[in-house]
Design a protein that fits this description.
Order of helices and strands: HHHHHHH
Transmembrane segments: 145-168, 174-196, 208-227
Membrane topology: Multi-pass membrane protein
Structural class: mainly alpha
Radius of gyration: 25 Å
Number of domains: 1
Largest sheet: none
Number of strands: 0
Number of helices: 7
Main location: membrane
Shape: elongated
Keywords: Membrane, Transmembrane, Transmembrane helix
Distance between the termini: 76 Å
Helix content: over 70%
Pfam family, one: VIT1
């Protein structure tokens, strides 16, 4: 029998979503912040201070937000598992038939479905019901600390790039250099995220760049308007 390896990407879902979100938010929010402040006409030092404050606040906010939201998901998963464990103890025969019925609906012959259900129940009843009834598997399990860490770290990495652009650019060209470098970085991030997730690179890159350009343009416009008025 010839064996072959298949490449799947679902095992990355736990940290990939948080990492891409954090990096994307770090680039866009920090670049938009420094673009808006720069457009108002303040000195470069003020732009850098605003950007650093945005990096610190944003990374902490992303970590806290991811931890709280994913913890809520984890609590819900654990509650469902506890209910399922209780049902297996109270009415094992009903749960066995329920598991077999799920295989039957998917096209398995009734006798075979019952046999498979018995074998899976003997091996690990809770895991079998968690996957078949609740759609839960080990690689999709909510991991709050992992999500928070990935989000915060990637936010810092993403936010550092616009700050470096501000630091290394002359005052007269700060806005344009931040804008161009941000668009390039968003394109790279979109391509990397799509590649790691096994999706189309063109689509992933385009949507990341378009939303980033929109955020930059709107924030720079607001900064220029208020910088003129105030």
């Amino acid at each position: 029998m010839v064996r072959h390896r298949e490449t799947h990407f679902t095992h990355r879902l736990g940290w990939l979503r948080a990492a891409v979100l954090g990096a994307n938010d770090g680039i866009i929010s920090t670049a938009s912040l420094v673009a808006g402040v720069s457009a108002s006409g303040v000195p470069k030092s003020a732009v850098l201070i605003a950007g650093i404050a945005g990096l610190v606040a944003g990374s902490m906010s992303m970590a806290a937000g991811e931890y709280v939201s994913v913890s809520s998901q984890s609590d819900s998963e654990n509650a469902d598992l506890e209910r399922e464990r209780s049902e297996l103890e109270r009415q094992p025969e009903y749960e066995l038939q329920e598991l077999a019925d799920r295989f039957i609906v998917r096209g398995v012959a009734p006798d075979t479905a019952v046999l498979v259900a018995k074998q899976m129940t003997k091996h690990d009843a809770l895991a079998a019901h968690a996957q078949e009834e609740l759609g839960m598997a080990n690689f999709t399990k909510a991991r709050p600390f992992q999500a928070a860490s990935a989000s915060a770290f990637s936010f810092i990495v993403g936010a550092t790039a616009p700050l470096l652009a501000v630091l290394l650019s002359p005052k007269s060209a700060t806005l344009w250099i931040v804008g161009v470098s941000t668009i390039v970085l968003l394109g790279i991030l979109g391509a990397m995220g799509a590649s790691l997730g096994g999706a189309g690179i063109t689509k992933g890159t385009a949507r990341t760049v378009i939303w980033g350009m929109t955020a930059l343009a709107v924030t720079a416009l607001v900064g220029r308007v208020f910088g003129t008025v105030v």
